[in-house]
Amino acid sequence: MINLRIDDVPAQAEPGQTILDAARAAGVRIPTLCHLEALCPVGACRLCLVEIRNWNGKLVPACATPAQEGLDVVANSDRLTSLRRTILELLFAERNHICAFCVSNGHCELQDLATELGMDHVTFPYRFPALALDASHAKFGIDHNRCVLCGRCVRACAEVEGAFTWGFAGRGVHTLVEADLGDRWGRSVTCTGCGKCVQACPTGALFEKGKITAEQEKRPALLAEITERRPRA
Amino acid sequence: MRRIQVLLCSGTACQSSGSDKVKRALLDELGSHDLLSEVQIVETGCMGPCELGPVLLVYPEGTFYVRVKPDDAAEIVSEHFLKGRPVRRLLWTEGAPQPQEIPFFSRQMKLVLRNCGTIDPEKIEEYIATGGYEALGKVVTLDPAQVIAAVKESGLRGRGGAGFPTGTKWELVRAATGDTKYVICNADEGDPGAFMDRAILEGDPHAVLEGMAIAAYAVGASRGYVYVRAEYPLAIRRLEVALAQARKLGLLGARIFESDFSFDIELRMGAGAFVCGEETALMASIEGRRGEPRPRPPYPATHGLWGKPTLINNVETFANVRHIVLGGAAAFAAVGTEKSKGTKVFALAGKVRNTGLVEVPMGITLRELVFDIGGGVPAGREFKAVQIGGPSGGCLPASLLDTPVDYDSLSRHGAIMGSGGVIVLDDATCMVNMARFFLEFTADESCGKCVPCRVGTQMMLAILNRIVAGEGTDQDLVRLAEIGDMMKNASLCALGQTAPNPVLSTLRYFPEEYRAHIRDRSCPAGVCPNLVRYVVVPEACRGCDACRRACPTGAAQGTAGKAPYRIADELCIRCGACFDACPFGAVKKEPR
Description:
Largest interface: A-B, 33 and 30 residues
CATH class of the largest domain in chain B: Alpha Beta
Number of strands of chain A: 10
Strand order of the largest sheet of chain B: 10-9-13-11-12
Strand order of the largest sheet of chain A: 2-1-5-3-4
Structural class of chain A: alpha+beta
Shape of chain B: globular
CATH topology of the largest domain in chain A: Alpha-Beta Plaits
Structural class of chain B: alpha/beta
Distance between the termini of chain A: 22 Å
CATH superfamily of the largest domain in chain B: NADH-ubiquinone oxidoreductase 51kDa subunit
CATH class of the largest domain in chain A: Alpha Beta
Number of domains of chain B: 5
Strand content of chain B: 15-25%
Number of helices of chain B: 24
Radius of gyration of chain A: 18 Å
Helix content of chain A: 10-25%
Order of helices and strands of chain A: EEHEEEHHEEHEEHEH
Oligomer: heterodimer
Number of strands of chain B: 17
Number of domains of chain A: 2
CATH topology of the largest domain in chain B: Rossmann fold
Shape of chain A: globular
Largest sheet of chain A: 5 strands, mixed
Helix content of chain B: 25-40%
Distance between the termini of chain B: 69 Å
């Protein structure tokens, strides 16, 4: 057992567990977005950044940092809340996240985080790039304007379904999630149509066709439910 | 009997200014005078003063010729080689034919670059003749712990930019558990204006391979990779030649020097992403995945390439290693400052007389680097700042010229040692526009994985674009500092963490220039197109009509033959066509 402190609460972790695992077990809330149970952590969204007091106040992603003996972790503070709010603002300003017109309104992790962290307006200029919407798949659609590039779909497809349909194309702000090296989703020969990517998506970027906003509730926990039922090697 | 040796620089810079043609012309001339058996031409790596290329050095007396054209070959052969009279017009400085009499060379201290410009990098025999692979031969008889102790004692720190103590890194990899370990040489040099690693790889590739082999022995690795950018074709070719020669002589491969130590090296070419210079992104790229960094810890020392313990050092770091083994750690540590030991190679570029590649002892001041070695700013202009450390670095003003060049002094002032790119800026440089240039670079090179870097660089760039267009507000300056601070703390890798540095350091040392752009809508350096105006200097104008013909909007006005012309500011779109067209320099840009 590894012993550490998170927000002055004693916490414990098994070897191989992360600071986030320890925090959850100890009942300390840390906001996350790109993290999803059952998928490899990537530490990309930076919302789960926590401060390590005994590493000179260094900020590390709780989801991707192994728990270590004696760590003194600050998971919630004014500094961290303001940082997380800024990161959310950047996400809202990056593409198009006008909730009133989104299929995921009311069931969106980005929206929930904004509410939780008190992000009541965006102080950055909205970029509103004109990105495509691919509705070529029979059951699902992808609207790049709503995508936050968390990569949960990419990892769900590779790590749980094993299809490797999704991947990142381009770089920087021009990065796009693309099927089969840039083909239309509907023409993908690797996609099994399982829909795990849609369930993993935290926003309205991936959605089910033929469902109204009120029905568009996702089950991100589905992936962990699947992997937990698998026999362990 | 060979009585004359000609060392002809064949680095990338001299090749692009025509060293190949000079070589052919010299060979032709030598052939026609029947001197081929008496004069030997040796193609070497970079000699340093790249702007003066093609350069060549004639031994035994050591005459240094610059800007040699193929047409000069006849005179060099007939006057110098036959009659013993150096061709004075081709000397760098009149009266100082020898390199050691020229400050550019005499103020340098060449350790890493010792072989660059003196040996043929494609002949392993020449490297061995300078003591090459002797260090490796010695090391395989030692205990790995002794090797690491020597590197620690030398005080060598990583030359890739961050300055992590090299010996400590080796020790961590040695201590990591695992049967398979890797050594990687990071040769993905991507800073604009930096060419130190390229010169080392082109001029002395074996020094890097030998350093890697020594490191591999010390940490217990049997396989190494050089990750070199595909934009360096000459460096790649010379590495391939060097690898083949080293394998042939048994200096790489199984049972090196008949010891139990086996080690071999493969090349991997980078496909042109700046972020792949970041160690975790580089390893992802070698593994065949998208070149994106991942959070650390775990560090490569324990979880590196394919999850195995991995040592990753920069080209110049590896090139230092043999000198520590041969000369001893104490001798190495005798050069430099308390916490920065040895020498550092810099690429001098920008508004400086002697652009090129230099190697100096750590702790030399910026003033010595820029003025004594670099020769200062060309006539007619004044020194303004030095940008050091590339897109991750900062700008230091004239008041800090006496700062010693070492890891800690530079970072204390908001710049970084970086990999060694030094860009000298004169008073015709707009600092806001300079910061904008670097932000444009990092915004373009951000991999897009983490939010602070991906979107933060875009937001900073948008603000800088507004400021240089004359649409900035005071609030923008506060905002730049806020976003910069957020990116420094929250970005995933060093690219995002250091991307704001050019902006933050110019805000710190040149705030009045930002304010002039915002409050006066004026660019003091006369650079930002929206914030300058074009005027005709009446005394210089000859009424040639060139500006009027070039002007697309009718702003340049006048009658042919009747000077002076005038430029109507209200019609001017600031395209600069009149400025470019005027043959008399009568059109001037001035701050609005």
